[in-house]
Amino acid sequence: MYSLGPTTKKMEHKDFYLMSENYNRGSLNLIPKLHKELDINKLFRNEYVIDKTVEFIVNTGSKNFDMLNSGFPGVFLISKRLVDLLRKCNATGWDSIPTIIQGNEAIEYYLLTVTGRCSAIDYEMSESFLKAPFTTSGKSIEAKRGLYFDLKSWDGSDIFTPKESRFTFVTEKVKSLLLNSKVTNIAFENITKHEVY
């Protein structure tokens, strides 16, 4: 069994990555069928105990990848293969909720929930810059670069989320494991490089 093992070195912001969907063409894009009393933020943060599967319907696409768009920014469905990889390596800071995708009931997917924590993003620490216009006639946009948090607030989990966000941060170990395992439709960006505008 491959284990991530404990992190012993002093971690810096450059040692963490934002994990997200890669938006592969044709990927299943889903819409959740949530009851009004269910809060997606609490589900994502594993703060709501649910005793049943979460249902989804297909919005667009038809291809199955290891990571799928749930219909909510920052919240993803992950394949059984990806769940098994995280379990086998003893990754900490996550859990999962079984799902049903209508019309694709035979495919086993789970809603990724994040139990690891750190403080809220401190945008005062981010680099301010002017982003070039998206069109030739457009105007430059004021933007921020870098998702910084209080390093002392990190609980040491391999997978974690800042307070009041749906960002999923991972360590280099998790990133390397998933890339080496050729997990599909997944992307990683160093948190010091991420742009917000």
Structure, explained:
By secondary structure, the protein is mostly beta strands. The chain has one domain (13-196). It has helices at residues 40-44, 80-88, 172-180; strands at 16-21, 29-33, 54-60, 67-69, 76-79, 94-101, 109-114, 116-118, 127-131, 141-145, 159-162, 169-171, 186-190, 195-196. The strands form 3 sheets. It has a 6-stranded mixed beta sheet. It has a 5-stranded mixed beta sheet with strand order 8-11-12-1-13.
User: Radius of gyration over alpha carbons?
Assistant: 17 Å
Mean pLDDT: 91
Unreliable spans are none
Q: Give the count of structural domains.
A: 1
Q: Whole-Å distance between the termini?
A: 42 Å
| Overall outline | globular
| Proportion in β-strands | 25-35%
SSE order, one letter for each helix or strand = EEHEEEHEEEEEEEHEE
DSSP summary: helix tally = 3
> Main sheet, how many strands, which sense, barrel?
6 strands, mixed
Name the structural class: mainly beta
Helix content: 10-25%
Number of strands: 14
Main β-sheet, spatial strand arrangement? 2-3-6-7-5-4
What's a quick, concise take on this entry?
With 197 residues, the chain is mainly beta. Helix content is 12%, strand content 34%.
Q: Could you list some keywords that capture this structure?
A:
6-stranded mixed beta sheet, 12% helix, globular, 5-stranded mixed beta sheet, 197 residues, 34% strand, mainly beta
Topology of this protein?
Elements: E1 16-21, E2 29-33, H1 40-44, E3 54-60, E4 67-69, E5 76-79, H2 80-88, E6 94-101, E7 109-114, E8 116-118, E9 127-131, E10 141-145, E11 159-162, E12 169-171, H3 172-180, E13 186-190, E14 195-196
Parallel strand pairs: 3-6, 8-11
Antiparallel strand pairs: 1-12, 1-13, 2-3, 4-5, 5-7, 6-7, 9-10, 10-14, 11-12
